[in-house]
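User: Can you predict the 3D structure for this chain?
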Amino acid sequence: MKLRLPSSLLVYVATVGVAGLLVLGAWIYTQDSQARIAEVRRSGAELASQEGSEVKPVKVLRVFGHKVEDILTLPGSVEAIHDIQMTARSSGPIDWIGPKEGAEVRRGQELMHLESDLEKAIVGSARADYAEALSNFEREKRLAEASVTPDKKREEYRFALMKAEALLKQASVSLAYRSILSPIDGTVERIPVDVGERVSDGDPVLRIVNTDQVRILVNVPEREIEYFEKGKSVRVSPFQDPSIKIPGIVDFVARVADPGSLTFDVKVIVENSAAKFRPGMLVDVETIRRSSDNALTVPVYAVIEDHHSETILIVEEGVAKKRQVKIEPLQSGLVEIIEGIQENEPVIVVGQRNLAEGERVRIADDLTPLARQLIEGGGTHGNLLMQPSL
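Assistant: Here is the predicted structure, written as structure tokens:
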């Protein structure tokens, strides 16, 4: 005889079984989810740890002492010391012109003369009158010594001689004024007249220039005038070729500023026998503001502005360390570090902009040998980023 279970019991057992399976499935899912979350967290922590310990490559310069000059450069213009505009000293047509434009002339050399036939005739007549007056005076003098001629008569002949002498000198000067002589050694810069042209007293006829020495005119701002004094040596370079350096001497320093530009006039004398400078050219005038035989310098881009102070980053035991420094600006993209660093410390010059203090770094390149090579070659390491590596 078969045992028959009530249908309600079968339903209960089935319900309990399904519920148990659901609970078991939920527990397995929960365990698996927690394991996955833990794995994700562990992976994230490892990744964060790896990112936090990333070693950043940098380039450094181990600072070293070397001679530097803080140079002030100002623009100037060239003028000739001897630039003479010659004018006619008499009136009349031009009879002869000797040198051409561009010719070298000597002091006292005749350059031009006007027609002078009348003046020559007047000189000849005055010379004859003088000779006659001199003869008469000498004759009367002998007679006076013999007590034949009275003293009054002798005085008349003496006055006549003096008058004839004065007229001869006047005629000679008038004749000399018909000729134009060079007052200096130099070059004929311009002749604005031609032979046959009539000129009047005071008309310009020649321009003579001597550029063996030239004068450089410089307008110096008030804040820089302290670096100029009479007798100080400076360097002058053509504006188009700064590699040429010609020594000059400060000859004049104004005591009063120009009311319009508020600058002081400074004049520099330069020997120019090689004709490097011509009147009207623009030049650069260099003077040394200060110099140091053992300055520690870095490119200006190595310095970071930090809350109104200057800092640099150095490498210390593989970590970027911040140093507050005191600097003095120099030319050619350099600054001198006055305080805050010691010689041979590695200053980060590439990679410091996006670097924080305490980050791990790796020296990818040491630019010190390149910097030394540039300085020994007469250059500067202010533009290290533009130089090819050794």
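The chain has four domains: 56-68+293-386, 73-79+210-290, 89-112+180-202, 116-177. The chain has four helices and 19 strands.
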